[in-house]
Design goal:
Distance between the termini: 69 Å
Mean pLDDT: 85
Strand content: over 45%
Strand order of the largest sheet: 2-1-4-6
Shape: elongated
Structural class: mainly beta
Oligomer: single chain
């Protein structure tokens, strides 16, 4: 057993010396070491700063974000790489400020957290890409729950504000409002609690046209808006 430990330590040292130097200029790197472990479970970068992944283990590993973007793909990732290889972590240069969990797709015990600060040049001058979807379709379920469920999808961390209004028999009434800060991009559930006037408007209605408008603001102050409509029966 001692011989195995010494051999592993020697191999790690050799891999460190032979690791590619082309990407070594990156400000930060995630490092994997024996036995299937991230030596850097917590990594911090500035917004827009590059990040690399160095594998000093004899096993193949990768780095994959748990959070997903609007396209359904991980926010950042690398391919599986072998001993001594180093590759860029694709996608981290477009992340907004916040904390992002990552893991190795073939070793469930390997987990870590990437923290993105507000510095650097990651501000693209554009507001978050925003999509809305009203999840509720039945009036009686909304009345019973006292809330309207909306799925929000954004491509970066953002502060959200939602307003829902219903048109019943030609009259429009504000159902309710909601706001929340999301530290990661991806899809998020927001629940809009019905106001007293909103409950009254839906009471006894057979159909209601619901309009939901949203405002999103990223850490750099860039804003965007989106709207959607659904018919509840």
């Amino acid at each position: 057993m001692k011989r195995r430990v010494l051999l592993t330590a020697s191999l790690v040292a050799g891999l460190a010396l032979s690791a590619p130097i082309a990407t070594a200029a990156a400000a930060e790197r995630i490092v994997a070491i024996p036995q299937s472990t991230y030596a850097t479970e917590s990594v911090a970068i500035d917004q827009g700063e590059p990040l690399t992944f160095l594998n000093l283990d004899v096993q193949n590993h990768d780095v994959t974000a748990r959070g997903k973007g609007a396209d359904g793909n991980p926010l950042f990732s690398t391919p599986l790489i072998g001993a001594g290889q180093e590759v860029p972590v694709s996608g981290t240069d477009t992340l907004g400020p916040g904390s992002y969990a990552f893991y190795c797709t073939i070793h469930a015990n390997m987990e870590g957290t990437l923290t993105v600060g507000g510095g650097g040049g990651g501000d693209d001058g554009k507001g978050p890409k925003l999509e809305l979807d009203v999840l509720d379709k039945k009036l009686n379920e909304v009345r019973k729950a006292g809330e309207l469920r909306v799925e929000m999808t954004v491509d970066e961390p953002a502060s959200m504000k939602l307003t829902a209004a219903a048109t019943v028999n030609g009259e429009s009434t504000t159902l309710g409002k909601a706001k929340h800060d999301f530290p990661e991009s991806g899809s998020h559930l927001m629940e809009i609690k019905l106001r007293k006037a909103g409950k009254s408007a839906l009471r006894g209605a057979k159909k209601a046209k619901v309009d939901v408008s949203a405002k999103a603001e990223d850490a750099a102050g860039n804003k965007s808006t989106a709207k959607t409509r659904a018919t509840l029966r």
